[in-house]
Fold this sequence. Notes:
Layout (H helix, E strand, L loop, with lengths): L13 E6 L6 H15 L6 H20 L1 E7 L2 E6 L5 E5 L4 E8 L2 H5 L3 E4 L5 E4 L4 E7 L4 E5 L3 H13 L1
Helix pairs in contact: 1-2
Amino acid sequence: MSSVASIPSPALIYREDQLFHCGLYFVPAVTVLVAAAALANRLDSSWVRDLMGLAGLGLGSGLGLALRMTTIVDPLTIQVSYGWIPLLRRNFDPRRLRAVEVVAFRPWRDHGGWGPLRGHRGERVYSARGCRGVRLTFVDGSQVILGSQQPEKLARCLNDLISS
C-alpha cells in the first residue's frame, strides 16, 4: 500500500480578474484581420508579405491572449499575473508588507499607461484599467502599486493579513 502526501493549498482570501479596456482589444483584432487578408491575397504576394502576415497573426493573437490581469491573495503570497494563460507572473510575500493604502493615479501621466510598468518615482505598477489601486510598501522601503477595480476590498484583505 502506498500513500501520497499532499500539501494543502492555502485558503484564497481575495481574487480579482480585470480585463483591459475594450479599445485595446481593437489593436490585436485589426492586426489579425490585416494579417489574414495579406495571407489570403497570395496571388501576387511575395515571401515578405507572407512572413509579415504570419508575424501579424502571431503578434495579434499574443496580444489578445495577454490582455487580462489577475490578482490573487492568500496567506502565503500576493500574486499578479497577466494573460489568459499567465505569460507574466509576479509574487510578493505578504509577511514583508509594512503598509497598504488605497491610491488614485493617472495611468498615462504617472507611469505611461496600463500593464506591468515602472512609475516615475521608481515604484513598480501592475494595472489593467482605471485609475485606482493599492500601494504596497514593504519593510525594505520598496513600493508596488496594484491596480484594482475594488481597491478598498483589496486593501482590507491585505491589512487583515498584516495584522494577523
